[in-house]
Design brief:
This protein is α/β, with parallel strands linked by helices and about 350 residues long. The chain is about 35% helix and about 15% strand. β5 and β6 form a beta hairpin. The N terminus is likely disordered. The chain binds S-adenosylmethionine.
């Protein structure tokens, strides 16, 4: 395998978000490989943490970022679509004003489940005051800072763990700081990465199959769908339901109060099931066949590489595979395991 990092391409300072399947650690490789293809407009169809969209923005492309999770959409709006807006000290004052109309939904719903009483009250306050900021980009930026604060303060960054968090406390700074302290830091972090690449980048909140490709006509489509899990499951809502709810103050979401962590309803995606994954890939390739297609995949996914190569070959004459060895960590706070996988970029031209 030939792989050379070309530092001329990008310096990626995207705030790391613990997100299942995030390509954060592979951004240099992906940007180097994509940098060799000719395209100006690009759709990131499954944007997740927003890291790939932001990297594409840094490559000076016109980026369309899409995910069916609302909090993913907010992250992309704040970092990829937003070119100019930052949170200033007036905005910070607005965010921290006491307002007797502030609802107490978070305090009531998640009492004893996540975070302290003060922190939950703070989340209610900031969520309410965010609506008073003057434009959608400031609101998305403040919400992104709040989301990342919540992830940092939550052990392992997943919302399947609740109640007594002491056993997870290994003294690390992220767990020591309060959400209030994190939030002020994260405002600085997100303010610091706002930039203008002179293109009109857009964030979309929707099902990738409904993306209006006839209107936007992306030259290249980057696809990083969830993998059919070998064991356990790969449900994003199960892990991140709190962030999804927070990003829209649980509007139109139904909470299942029978669950210990007060989850919202799981979102169906055909990529998560053996029975539907192959058909879904076929439909996806068919939909985007007028664009260069780049699929991120890995050796521990299903279907396997040969099947995907064959499927893409139905729509593209030239299919190339780029490979990279990658180590990833999994497990719990007691034992972290390492596993070697091969990461693929399957490129159809
Ligand atoms: C592997 S993750 C993407 C990770 C992302 N590339 C990153 O670096 O953070 C897969 C994403 O697909 C989204 N997703 C799953 N099915 C979808 C669908 N039908 N339409 C849009 N997004 C979908 C999930 O919400 C999840 O964020």
């Amino acid at each position: 395998m030939h792989y050379e990092y070309n530092p001329a391409f990008v310096s990626i300072n995207y705030p790391l978000i613990r997100y299942m399947g995030s390509k954060y650690k592979l951004l240099d490789w992906i940007s180097t490989e994509l940098g060799q293809l000719e395209f100006n407009t690009v759709l990131d169809g499954f944007s997740g943490s927003g890291a790939v969209s932001y990297m594409l923005k840094k490559l000076n492309k016109t980026v369309y970022s899409n995910d069916f999770l609302h909090f993913s959409y907010i992250l992309a709006k704040a970092t990829t679509e937003n070119s100019f807006q930052r949170i200033n000290s007036n905005d910070l004052n607005t965010l921290h004003k006491q307002d007797s109309n502030t609802p107490n939904f978070i305090q009531e719903t998640f009492k004893g489940i996540f975070y302290s009483k003060d922190e939950l009250r703070y989340l209610d306050k900031i969520s309410y005051n965010i609506n008073k900021l003057s434009n959608q980009y400031k609101r998305a930026l403040a919400m992104s800072a709040l989301i990342r604060s919540c992830i940092k303060k939550q052990p392992r960054g997943v919302f399947t763990i609740s109640g007594d968090m002491e056993k997870y406390n290994d003294g690390r700074r992220d767990l020591r700081l309060t959400i209030q302290e994190h939030f002020l830091e994260q405002i600085e972090v997100y303010n610091g990465i706002v930039f203008n690449n002179l293109n009109k980048n857009r964030a979309f909140h929707g099902n990738v199959f409904e993306f209006d490709d006839k209107k936007y006509k992306p030259d290249l489509v980057y696809l990083d769908p969830p993998y059919v899990p070998r064991s356990d499951d790969n449900c994003y809502v199960k892990r991140y339901h709190f962030l999804e709810g927070l990003s829209k103050y649980w509007k139109d979401e139904e909470i299942d109060f029978n669950t210990k962590v007060h989850k919202i309803k799981k979102k169906y995606t055909p990529f998560s099931y053996r029975k539907t994954a192959i058909i879904a890939f076929d439909e996806l390739f068919d939909k985007f066949k007028s664009s260069i297609i780049v699929l991120s995949y890995s050796s521990n996914g299903y279907p396997d590489l040969a099947i995907l190569e064959g499927l893409l070959g139905k729509y593209k004459n030239n299919v190339e595979i780029k490979k990279k060895n990658h180590k990833y960590h999994f497990g719990n706070h007691k034992s972290v395991k390492r596993s070697n996988v091969e990461e693929y970029l399957i490129i159809g031209k």
